Amino acid sequence: MSYTIREVIGKAASNMALAEFLAAFVRRGGLVRPQPGDDRPDVWRKRFSWWWDENPFCRPDSPCGYQLETGSGEIVGFSGYIPFDYEKEGEAVPTLIATTFFVLEAHRSAVMGLLARQRSLGRQYQIIDGSPSPQMRRLLSKLRYEHAEERFQYYFPLIGFGGLATQALLKQVGLSLDLPSGNQLSPECYFTSDPFDIETIPTLKDGKLHRRVTVESLSWLCRIGSGERSFFGYCDAKGELIAYAIGIYKKKFGFCLCLLEDYVDFRPHQNGLGQLLRHLTADPIGSGLLRETDLMALSIFRAENRPGQHGLKRNSNLYYHLPDGIDPQSKRCLAIEGDLALI
Q: Collapsing DSSP states into helix, strand and coil, what is residue 334?
């Protein structure tokens, strides 16, 4: 059978047939663990809007994906991308987040054509895959993608869950971290739950490959996605961002956990992130945390400078491929990377 691989134009309204295909794929049992809404075309169109129409990093020439069609024009597969800008020493590194690799079982012989397009894009773009299936992980390893390996989680109980007393116990067993005490920065510094309260965002020049941070991108990340989330920012008297975190909420075993999966400390020499965490634990409601939140959790990858506490080891499904000339060891990994937070 002959196939055509067609480039997807990144507008939600022009991809209704694709949304219908993806919803039908899920209804046929194509996903082992579908998420709520995966079987509805309107949910897919909303996701397209988040990924492409509203995305501040999506430009007219940004690749948004490819759809696999039969000779009669029937859609039988899709490989999607979400544009995102990264930077190293202030220089842009264009990036694509892989999402939604669906191909009907009867047409799996054409999968390599979609993967060949992805490999071609990898010459110019960093490609990130943060939620691959076991089969896709094996393919990514064969394609020489880097694997972020383990990450380690640290917990910060709030008042209703024992607060500082519980944190002290967790710290003794290596599952929490010391937080700064007292006002180590100017009392004129302020905290905000709205990215648009930030006046300036400094450029990190530490030799690492980071996600590009803008007011628009922070706002976008906080308003999209199916799960509730909160923004926490710490700024100096002039409105320059010192540190921020985005919390994504998860309820499990009767507890409400705020996962701090996206964060940056622009002043690590002053422990800006620690100051932010201390404020969140001291005044969770005033900081904008959901009232029912019991714990916060911070994830740190093994490749980073981890503190002495060992943390709770968690497996990582984060894979990435870098363009030529960029050292894989320079990449700073975050738990939020991948498409799960964007659907």
A: coil
| Residue type (1 letter), 105 | E
AA identity, residue 202: P
- 315 CB neighbour count, 10 Å cutoff: 8
d(CA 248, CA 224): 11
Per domain, the residue ranges of the chain are 3-147, 151-315
User: 296: which 2 tokens?
Assistant: 């916060």
Predicted TM-score (pTM) of this structure: 0.94
Q: pLDDT tens digits for the chain (343 residues)?
A: 899 999 999 889 999 999 999 999 999 999 988 999 999 999 999 999 999 999 999 999 999 999 999 999 999 999 999 999 999 998 999 999 999 999 999 999 999 999 999 999 999 999 999 977 888 889 899 889 999 988 999 999 998 777 878 888 898 999 999 888 766 677 889 999 999 999 999 999 899 999 999 999 999 999 999 989 999 999 999 999 999 999 999 998 889 999 999 999 999 999 999 999 999 998 999 999 999 999 999 999 976 666 778 899 988 899 999 998 899 989 999 999 999 999 9
- Reply yes or no on domain 151-315 having CATH 2.40.128: no
What angle in degrees, to the nearest 10, is found between the helix axes of 272-282 and 163-172?
A: 130
CA dihedral 35, 37, 39, 44 (to 10 degrees): -110
Task: Determine contact, residues 64/51, Cβ cutoff 8 Å.
Answer: yes
For residue 130, report the phi and psi dihedrals to the nearest 5 degrees: -105, 0
**Closest C-alpha to 309, from 170, 180, 181:** 170
DSSP 156: E
CB neighbourhood size of 249 (10 A)? 16
Topology of the domain covering 3-147:
Aminopeptidase (3.40.630)
DSSP annotation of 56 reads T
Within 10 Å of residue 53's Cβ, how many Cβ atoms?
Answer: 12
Domain pair 3-147 / 151-315, same fold: yes
End-to-end CA distance of the chain: 33
